[in-house]
Amino acid sequence: MKSIVSKTAILFFFVLLFSSCRLFFDMDCINGDKNNYEFYLPFTLYPAQDTFHINDTIWLHADFSDELLDSNSLNYYKVENQTFRSSLFFERIDTSPRLDANPDFLLLNDTGYISFVQFPTASSFDIAYLYVNSRYKLHAGFVPGKTGLYAFNLGAVTYQEVDFQKRCPGELMNVLFNLNSGAENNYPFMALSPDTLINSYPYNKFTYNGYYCFYVVE
To 10 degrees, the CA torsion angle through 167, 168, 174, 180? Predict the structure, then answer.
């Protein structure tokens, strides 16, 4: 009998403990999407034209609030001083397979910081935003040095671990992009590539990965 009472008491203790712990977490933390958040970051690439000349400057700009809309819950969250672990890339797409074209562009840092990173078989430009007065800022230029058909795109590490609410363990964040307010960004140029992975690339992925296609001529 004492054994049954002891087991019942222990079970009651753990039920009470679990119920009490829930009080320390915002109910927004307990959802069916495993605490995943999805934020679209707004960027502008300009001048928005389909052809550039060698030694022209292509500018990339971002300036957005840390109050971000989660596209999963449609709630706004204050996302303070996050790195977003994002990068940008240039690819030469008039060849098959497409080619890493990051070395073809001269980088001009202005606000925030973009760094060229070389890997054994590829490269990237990693992004470090300036976070000031509750805003994220970035401004940089890229100067093409070779002719060809190019695709620019943005990317981020998926399922980044975050805790920006300070009370929701197990939060995961995905970062997507909104380039030029959802403009077409020369999507038809993708069909001109001989690379089948490029010429069949879906428009929705082209959009949320912040793609932009353009020619560089003499």
Answer: -40
pLDDT tens for each residue of 123-156: 999 999 999 999 999 999 999 999 999 999 999 9
| H helices present in the chain, as ranges | 2-22, 196-199, 203-208
Distances (CA, A) of 176 to 14, 16, 138, 158, 181: 40, 40, 16, 9, 13
Structure tokens at 139: 């401004």
pTM above 0.85, yes or no: no
Q: What is the pLDDT of residues 186-197, one digit of tens each?
A: 999 999 999 999
CA distance 97 to 113: 30
Of 199, 198, 207, 92, the closest CA to residue 144 belongs to: 92
**Residue 136, both tokens:** 């994220």
